[in-house]
Structure formats: C-alpha cells, structure tokens
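It would be a great kindness if you could assist me with a short task in structural biology. Thank you for your consideration; the sequence and its tokens are set out here.
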Amino acid sequence: MKVLITTVPFGDKNRSPIDLLDEAGIEFVINPLDKKLTEQELADMVADYDAIIAGTEPITDYVMSRASNLRMISRVGIGLDSVDLMAAERRGIKVSYTPDAPAPAVAELTIGLMISLLRSVHLSNLIMHRGEWKRYFGRRLTETTVGVIGLGRIGKRVLNLLETFGTPRLLVNDIVTDKEIGRKFKIEWVTKDTIYREADIVTCHVPLTTKTKNMICREQLESMKQDAILINTARGGIVNEAELFDVMQAGHLSGAAIDVFEQEPYVGNLSDIERCLLTSHMGSMSIDCRTRMEIEATEEAVRYLTGRALEGEVPEEEYAVQREGL
C-alpha cells in the first residue's frame, strides 16, 4: 500500500496525519518538489501509488492514465474542479473530500479582508514600510451593503459573521433559495446583477464550474459602484484577472482582495495595483482547520486501503455538476 501526498505543506504543524499512516503500516511519500505540481509533474510521479492525498493540482484523465495502481483520491479540502470526476468514475477510482473542515478559516479570512480593504490597512502597511506616514479615512462594516454570491458552507458562515457586526443590508444570490436561511438572517434574495450594482462589498463563495468560470468580467466589474470592493476567496477563474486589472488600473473600484488564482503560484500584473490585496491561497491555512483537513483526508485514505467504508465520499450531485459542463 503506497500513498502519494501531493498537497504541501503536510503535517508541518501537527503530525497526526503522518502518524495515522505510520500506524496503519502504509508507505507514503510527501510531494518531493514542495510546490503545487503541474499536470506533467504529477503524471511523472504517480505510477506506483494506490492512493493520492491531494491538493489542488490537476488530477486529469491523463494523470490517471499514468497511474495504473491508483484506486483512490482523497482531497484535502472542498474544491473538486482540479479532479476529473468523470475520468475517475470510468476508471473505478473512488474520490473523497473534506468539505466542512476549511469553512471556518475561509469565512474568517473573508471578513478580515473586508475590514482591511475598508480601512486601507494594506495600503497603510505598504507606505509605512516605505518610510511614509499617511492616515486613511475608511468605512465600517456596519455602514455597508454586502453582497454574498453563493450560500454554501462558507457563504453561510460569512453571513453569520456579518450579522454579528450588524451589517445593515445583506444581499444574497444562490441557485437555491433557502427559506430557513431567509428566516434566520435578515437578507434580501436578489439577482447577481443587483448585487453588482448595489453592494459596497461583493464576496464570492461558489465552486469553479463551467457556469461560474469568468463569472465576474469587465461588464460585471464596471457595473459595480466606483468605490466598491471585490473579494474572491473561492476559486481562481471565477474572476477574470486580466479584466480586473484593466478595470482597476482605470481607477474603478476602491479595492479588491484575491486569495485564489487561475494559475498558482500567481505571477501577474494585479501585483502592480497597490489597492488590490493579494494573498497566496491562504483561506484554509489556519492551524486548526488545515490540521483537520489533513487528518480527515488521511483517515479516508487509510479507510480505503484497509478495506473500510469511506465517510467523506464525493456525492453524486458533485459528479452531476461536472457532467453538466461536458
């Protein structure tokens, strides 16, 4: 039994997932390149492994074709856009994930980014490091209209946190109108276009699919308020990065915070826009949430390799999402 751990870091802050593999007598290798793998890099190293404890690297049909022993993929996290579920299904490869574990950390980072942008914390830090002194006027969450696109595990937590701040107006869009959420929170169910036009802050919490790819482009960005703020802690590719650069370079939007990128590590011209706050896919990187993700994903791999039933197997509706995009 051999496991390839592609996600890095792994076991850095808590050795529990490594101990689980040792105790089960499972041989493992942690990503020897210590970076996010390209499709070809992964294909070149998967040949002998029975399972992958995976990050966000592309696990494509081509990669699976190079992995003759592969029977199980255990995702450390929630996003499945990097895994070709149809190819896995055809090849009889089981796929599991840890959808609940990262939600608290991503939601909290989202709120932190909102506050940083509203108060220009990132800009003040930047110029202080240059030896300059400037005080910025800002806004508080209690004075803003926030639009939340996507009301899944993370979106709901963001709503809950916003309510504790007393955010006066919450605009929400999702493919399903959740009546229970509507009763719990004082929200307005609106179209995405309404959110773009009326929100002071727009935050995205949707998966990357063919329907959400480039969901926010020049048209949507230019329809937002001149001093609006955009936040993406969901998936790279939902916001068109090139068009975001063009719109912000032209002076539109007071700020943006982007934690996820179409190509990671990110090297692009958004780094030239100082009011665009960039972070390196850190949404789930709190010690507690990251540890929980790693443990849950490892437990799934151990269950499969020791002949036990999976507890976090990807449900049929996730496969359906990918089928619809074919």
In short: The radius of gyration is 21 Å. The chain has a mean pLDDT of 96. The CA atoms of residues 58 and 82 lie 5 Å apart. The domain at 2-99+287-324 is CATH 3.40.50.720 (Rossmann fold).
